[in-house]
Design goal:
Length: about 200
């Protein structure tokens, strides 16, 4: 199964210069936030595949212009294509804007999902906007990762932790893929292809 991971920056290859068939090989699209609703609508229409998303800190417009045809999994545990996906959008509080949380607020969001995770027997993919603390994040207040995400990874050991928020051209950017224990942490900024083997998709 092939996944298209996206966040933060609309990719001209998939939008401005799109050619028929470029999205035909994907089974699922996951958006880690901060993308135009029109972009998500375009991708889900052209791919004709499920598109799941969480909110980024610049997605306040979704309240009045939600991307039709796409499914918001922010604050939810959902199963799609056999994958148990936990969604936690937003970033650390820095300006009081929408989809910003303190560490304690994000911890409370996680606690509300524990029953659903237990019922599902665990989680395969955690989809967030912000990264874990010290794992692909920045040092400024707006781009610091959540420490509770590190504990979440340690407790549930998902196969993948997918985030955005940290652009590839930031000076603090280090690497797109980081291994954290048994979990592969992926920065989805722009676009990234993730192919799961049959064993991984059980």
């Amino acid at each position: 199964m092939k996944l298209l991971l996206i966040s933060d920056q609309e990719d001209p290859y998939l939008w401005d210069y799109y050619r028929p068939g470029r999205l035909s090989g994907y089974d699922l699209i996951l958006s880690a936030g901060d993308l135009k609703p029109s972009y998500l609508r375009f991708l889900v229409t052209m791919a004709n595949r499920p598109l799941l998303y969480v909110h980024g800190n610049h997605d306040g417009c979704y309240a009045s212009d939600a991307p039709e045809g796409c499914d918001c999994v922010d604050g939810l545990l959902t199963v799609c294509k056999g994958l148990r996906i936990l969604g936690l959008g937003g970033c650390c509080l820095y300006s009081g804007g929408p989809h910003q949380y303190t560490e304690k607020q994000m911890e409370r969001r996680i606690r509300k999902l524990r029953r659903a995770v237990k019922k599902a027997g665990g989680v395969d993919v955690i989809l967030t906007h912000a990264p874990p603390r010290g794992c692909g994040d920045g040092e400024d207040p707006a781009h610091r990762g959540f420490e509770c995400f590190n504990r979440l990874i340690e407790e549930y050991r998902p196969r993948y932790f997918i985030h955005g928020h940290q652009h590839l051209n930031y000076k603090t950017f280090s690497q797109r893929v980081i291994r954290l224990g048994e979990t592969t942490v992926i920065n989805a900024c722009g676009r990234y292809e993730l192919e799961l083997s049959p064993e991984q998709n059980k």
